[in-house]
C-alpha cells in the first residue's frame, strides 16, 4: 500500500455519477492505496503539543492543552480526564446547515475520545483535564481517521504518556469492492463503511465504528485491511516524531560568515 494524491470536488452538483470505472477508482489509486499523507508537529505555539495532518484533501489541525486542574470534580480522583472537541470550519463540508455540522462534530468528538482513551495514561495526571481541540479545515473523506492520527501525534508532541500511538484507517465498500482511505465522493456512494483505530505495538483495537450491512467474511477482510493500513500510519507518525525531536535537539549551525555578522 502506497501513498498517492487525489482531489475531491467541492460542490454537490460536481459529484460524479460513479466512483469506480472498469473496476478502478477514478483518482487512479489501487483499492488498498492511501492518498498523500503529510504530517507536521508544533504548528500551534500556545499549545502544549500540536499537529497538522493532510490526508489527501482532508486537512486537520489539533492542539493539546494541559493537563489543567478540573473545576468539575468536588473530590480527589486517581484518574485524569480526557476532553476531546472536534470542530468543522464553516467551509469544511458541502453541507452549509449549522445543525448538520453540529451533530457531526458531536459524533466525531465522542468517537475521538473513545479511540484515544485506551492509550492515554490518565492516572499520570489525577484530578486534571487534558483538552484535545481539533479543527477540520477540509473534509475530503476519511475525516475521523485523519482526526485520530492528528490527535495522537499532538499528544505525543505534548509529551503525554501513552501506552502506544493510536492509528486509524477507513474502509468503504462501493459496488462490492472494498476501498481503503475513501474520498468524500466514495463515502457518498458507499454501501457500507467502517473506521478502525488501532495500537499496532500492543496489537489492540481501541475502537471500531461501522455502518451498513456486512457479511462475516466482508467484515473480517475490511478489519484486516484497516489494521494493516494502521501499521503504515503508525510508521509515518513515528518517523515524524523522530524528525521533530531531531530538529529540536540539534540547533542550526552558523557558518563563519554568520558568526562574524552576529
UniProtKB/TrEMBL annotation:
GO molecular function: RNA binding
Gene3D superfamilies (alphabetical): GHMP Kinase, N-terminal domain
Transmembrane segments: none
Occurrences of domain Exoribonuclease phosphorolytic (ranges): 33-161, 164-227
Disordered: region residues: 243-262
UniProt biased composition (Acidic residues): 253-262
GO cellular component assignments: cytoplasmic exosome (RNase complex); nuclear exosome (RNase complex); nucleolus
GO biological process, one term: rRNA catabolic process
Main location: cytoplasm
Localization (cell): Cytoplasm; Nucleus
Top-rank taxon, per record: Eukaryota
CDD domains to which the protein is assigned, alphabetical: RNase_PH_MTR3
SUPFAM superfamilies linked to this entry: Ribonuclease PH domain 2-like (SSF55666), Ribosomal protein S5 domain 2-like (SSF54211)
Pfam family, one: RNase_PH
Keywords from the named record: Cytoplasm, Exosome, Nucleus, RNA-binding, rRNA processing
Family: Belongs to the RNase PH family.
PANTHER family: EXOSOME COMPLEX COMPONENT (PTHR11953), EXOSOME COMPLEX COMPONENT MTR3 (PTHR11953:SF2)
Protein name (record): Exosome complex component MTR3
Organism: Auxenochlorella protothecoides
Amino acid at each position: 500500500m502506497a501513498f498517492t494524491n487525489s482531489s475531491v470536488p467541492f460542490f454537490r452538483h460536481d459529484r460524479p455519477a460513479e466512483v469506480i470505472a472498469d473496476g478502478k477508482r477514478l483518482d487512479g489509486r489501487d483499492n488498498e492505496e492511501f492518498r498523500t499523507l503529510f504530517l507536521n508537529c508544533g504548528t500551534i505555539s500556545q499549545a502544549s503539543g500540536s499537529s497538522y495532518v493532510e490526508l489527501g484533501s482532508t486537512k486537520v489541525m489539533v492542539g493539546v492543552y494541559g493537563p489543567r486542574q478540573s473545576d468539575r470534580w468536588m473530590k480527589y480522583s486517581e484518574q485524569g480526564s480526557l476532553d476531546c472537541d472536534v470542530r468543522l470550519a464553516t467551509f469544511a463540508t458541502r453541507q452549509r446547515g449549522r445543525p448538520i455540522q453540529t451533530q457531526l462534530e458531536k459524533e466525531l468528538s465522542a468517537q475521538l475520545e473513545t479511540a484515544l482513551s485506551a492509550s492515554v495514561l490518565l492516572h499520570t495526571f489525577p484530578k486534571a483535564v487534558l483538552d484535545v481541540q481539533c479543527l477540520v479545515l477540509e473534509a475530503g473523506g476519511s475525516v475521523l481517521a485523519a482526526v485520530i492520527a492528528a490527535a495522537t501525534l499532538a499528544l505525543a508532541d505534548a509529551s503525554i504518556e501513552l501506552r502506544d500511538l493510536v492509528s486509524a484507517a477507513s474502509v468503504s465498500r462501493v459496488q462490492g469492492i472494498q476501498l481503503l482511505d475513501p474520498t468524500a465522493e466514495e463515502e457518498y456512494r458507499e454501501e457500507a463503511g467502517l473506521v478502525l483505530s488501532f495500537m499496532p505495538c500492543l496489537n489492540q483495537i481501541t475502537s471500531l465504528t461501522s455502518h451498513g450491512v456486512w457479511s462475516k467474511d466482508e467484515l473480517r477482510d475490511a478489519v484486516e485491511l484497516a489494521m494493516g493500513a494502521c501499521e503504515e500510519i503508525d510508521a509515518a507518525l513515528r518517523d515524524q516524531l523522530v524528525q521533530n525531536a531531531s530538529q529540536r535537539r540539534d540547533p542550526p549551525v552558523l557558518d563563519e560568515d554568520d558568526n562574524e555578522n552576529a
